[in-house]
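Entry: MmcQ/YjbR family DNA-binding protein
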Amino acid sequence: MSHPLMFDDDDPVLVRLRAATAGLPQVVERVSHGRPHFRAGQRGKGFAVYGGGVKVRPGEHERHDQAVLFKPDPAEVGALDTDPRFWVPAYYGPSGWRGLDLDLRRTDWAEVAELLDASYRLVATRRLLAELDDHG
């Protein structure tokens, strides 16, 4: 089943998110379920998704189209859960993922880069981690 695209390729927030992933080794972007997914390597696991939603009640979701979903360092989950900027995304939340709404002017992009780095490190192979640490 094909999903409709839920993003605009020219969205400046997505462009900025792509730039934030550019410093990570061998990031692959693929569209899955209508949204851009970022993976650590060609066959690697996902570490970020652009856009998501929150389940409001059965069959109803609140969309967060300009957001990043990421897998936080387990030691940081408690702190993120006390920060109202972060939310538990539908489908990904049970696996520990969190979401953060993005805005070109108000978002702390250095913080986003740190979150992406931590998420990448949770799924990357040892070879990719060594490459990241060698160039980081």
